[in-house]
Amino acid sequence: MAVIGLSCRFPGAADPGAFWRNLVSAADSVGTAPPGRWEERVGPAPAEPRNPIRHGGFIEGIDEFDARFFGIVRREAEYMDPQQRLLLELSWQALEDAAVPAHSLRATRWGVYVGAGADDFRTQYFASGRLDRFGHMGSSRSLLAGRVSHHLGLRGPSEVVDTGQSSSLYALHRALASLRLGECDAALVAGVNLNLLPDVTDQVQLWGGLSADGRCRAFDERADGYVRAEGGGVVVLKPLEAAVRDGDHVYCVVRGSAANNDGGRTALGVPSPDAQREVIEAAHRAAGVTGASVGYVELHGTGTPVGDPVEAEALGEAIGRRRSRATPLLVGSVKSNIGHLESAAGIAGFIKACLVLHHGQLPPTLHHHRSPAELPLADLNLRVVGADQEERLGTDEVVGVSSFGMGGTNVHVVLAGSPARTDPSGRLGSRTPSERPTTDTVWCLSGRTREAARSLARAFLEHSFPTERYTVSDVAWSLAQRGEGEHRVAVVGGSWDEMRDGLLKIVAGHDLAIPADWLHEGGTERAAWVAVAGTYAAHGDLAKVADRLGTGRRKVPGLPTYPFERDTFHGPTPPHPVAPAPEPAPAAPEEARTRPLLDGWQQAADPSERLWLIRSFLERELLDVLGETGDEHLRVDPDSTFKDLGVDSMSLLELQDRLTAATAVELPESALFDHPTVNDLAAHLNTELEALRG
């Protein structure tokens, strides 16, 4: 199975490129809880621990989300688990990295597999006392996968699995099995974990799993526990044959995987060396490899005094002692850089392994100086990758990734480098740009808003392109596989310098950028490129651009993805003690109720004024139902359908109740579906009032 797309938000890194730069530069992305985090508890502070740990690996902006990009109304987004929001954005970014148009996936047999275990938002939501009908699905763990499948229209399996800390690597194992069984044609595999509540960290500290100073020291004599961390990652899996057929970039290939359980061989929560050895050997059999061909293993590597010796013993028996003493097995742990992402730890290690194979380099593991006596690395023929020398993978060496859950579920996956590929025209994909003809082209960028399109251009301007492997036409082809936003810009050129100059013009406010000399010595061929680019910027139609680009291009990995325009959603928080609410006043009898809309309607003599009153009322009430009243500039398009406005059936029923209360007109439930726009419903309601009131 080929890995053709990646996305992530990990501590210190908003994308895989930044993540890789942090790894090779030995960056430590663990810190203390940011302002506003871990300040609200769901219960009283416990007597223990006396010195609560507040170190962790944190990501920025967990309360931010581009709801309008995904067609989600503000009220619904407010009551969505931020893990759901994060996975929507990461899934979109992974598809863009894979150069797979999201719109092309509707009604396809793509699967979604998510590893997750944290229920912080759900706990926080129920403790707040602010229940809302959107909170039922917004706090459901099953919707972590289901919402992605729903938004993209995917018809394959959609699963959320929880095997503790091995959840996301187990989700990958499930996806591989589903692909091989033919249950889906491709898959999005994800892991997510957000640490919202200090109560959970206090509980883990009491359990005894956390490092006192907030550092994971895998296989080191100072190891005293792990540090909690958060984030999410998504990978796109596809059968290798299909990836080659479609001209996809392949980061690496998954050769095989295996999963098992400790099965009571030790105490609950204590790992079994035999079980870990067995799962590694089973993964090797599935991959058709031996320990001698393994060049590196990404450890579970939490840095706990109990877990590290067990993992080392299993690796030594399964791989290390079966290798030449001259070439000990190299191991490392990403937890030393970003902390332990718990249910998302497996996907973090997996993405690191994908990047290792993609770049051929092994980043150092932090905080490792010397192993303890009970963990004899030399005897086990293991060596932790350090910063003292640069390590690289051998050409044919494979990489293993381990992840173990505290309930005993163990997973190991074997990865290999991307094989020699051919592009869709049948030519060797390994040729360098100097061996391929330079051609003029157009880069098409778009966004939901004009500023989003400009921001994307700015990101491309700042991006470091792999010019030694790809051409400007390859970038153009990759961009032509993306979605098409309402606002579009285009850059025409034939060299990296021309494209950079064009991006500068777009950032400055132009919608179309053309090299200056093209206007005087362009010729008919260049005039045709300008025409295609101008038509795209003005009217869209990426299909015509793709036709003009032709075949023989290569998809470029790691390009900047869509710049989401995020709003802030604070969500429910635990309540502060307040005085008891006064007893509600008895409801007024029906005949004594005041109805401002109805009173105004009866006083209006002009039929057009009556219709205007109803339409204005409908617009205000609809915005209120959707939780959008805080934006004074937001307007409802009275001719857009309720579905296009993001109104679900439950919101329509709430709107129906409000209309009945305001007008005393008993509207059937079907009325809002039979009259699906504000204008249609206003006209219908006006007719009903005239029949009743005259």
TrEMBL record:
Domain of life where this protein originates: Bacteria
Location of the region described as Disordered in the Swiss-Prot/TrEMBL record: 31-50, 418-440, 562-594
Keywords from the UniProt entry: Phosphopantetheine, Phosphoprotein, Transferase
Entry's Gene Ontology BP terms: antibiotic biosynthetic process; fatty acid biosynthetic process
GO MF, any single term: fatty acid synthase activity
Residues covered by the Carrier domain: 612-689
SUPFAM superfamilies: ACP-like, Thiolase-like
Transmembrane segments: none
Domain Ketosynthase family 3 (KS3) as annotated: residue spans: 1-417
Listed Pro residues bias regions: 572-587
PANTHER family: FATTY ACID SYNTHASE (PTHR43775), SI:DKEY-61P9.11 (PTHR43775:SF37)
Protein name, as recorded: TtmG
Originating organism: Streptomyces afghaniensis
Gene responsible for this protein: ttmG
